[in-house]
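Please, is this right?
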Amino acid sequence: MTTRKFQAIASVLRSEIPQSDIQKSSHWQHYTNERTLNRDGTVSGISGFGGRARRTWLHQKVHDHLQRRVLGKNHPVFEGPAYREASNYTKTQGRALDMDCLRHACTLDLLRAHHQKMSSPRNVTVIGDGQTNFVAAALASGLYQKIVSINLADVLLSDLELLEALPGLDKNSVQISNSAENLRSALKQPDTKVVLVPAQHAIELGACDIDLVVNIASFQEMNHDIVQSYFRFIRANFAWHYNCNRLRKVLPAGEVLDFMTWDWQGAEFLLDEICQWHQLWYTYRPPFLRPYDGPVQHRLAKFG
């Protein structure tokens, strides 16, 4: 798949990769060390940010069966709006509705349930998305006027291929930003739906009128100082923040990420508990259901 609609953005992202590489944790150095920049403008050889298996009837039936074993066949997500939306956009993208997509459907149903309590955020920023799992779900939900995706440049380049498959997106509705001024301007453009921000520019953003910031299972993969810079970004915007990460994780070079030691001081919690849909995952070999390496906590908090 090429990025015909977004060639200009792809070119900028490719130029951003060397600077993006400098910021990577040992986790991301490991998962991008076989990266290849292809002649058609795409990227390959990177992993660690979710699956992207080709959709077939049989494979999807297997996913459906195992997902109901993980969550229970009567789990409300399977009758909820986010699951129906995920079924549609994954078909459009030609990919399986896998466990990553299902977890994001659960998250969107949760955010939808609390939407009015958060004063109906107009925009949402996702940090460290993968395979457009959150961006596609947020677009399909219709909850947000604008979606900002902050990520490593090579991961954003990979995401462009999946964005191109989604209906309603064109070269005017997807923008790239590398400064607070650019981001504020993009958020004011009526045609803009998605704004991509290479991660090395995020620490400079400051206040950009962001309403909600989401991080799902990627703060746990970053260096501690980078995580702290994102909390400063959240505070600068007086934003709501949904955070779902492992309580403790050790990266390949020995860095320890500890959920409870992050900068939560003064935050008001609307939700603070173990995340039930992030405790088990499935594989195609026995034992089919397996626990994660540690418990995953999620919080929905207001920073004022």
The domain at 119-302 is CATH 3.40.50.150 (Rossmann fold). The first strand starts at residue 36 and ends at 37.
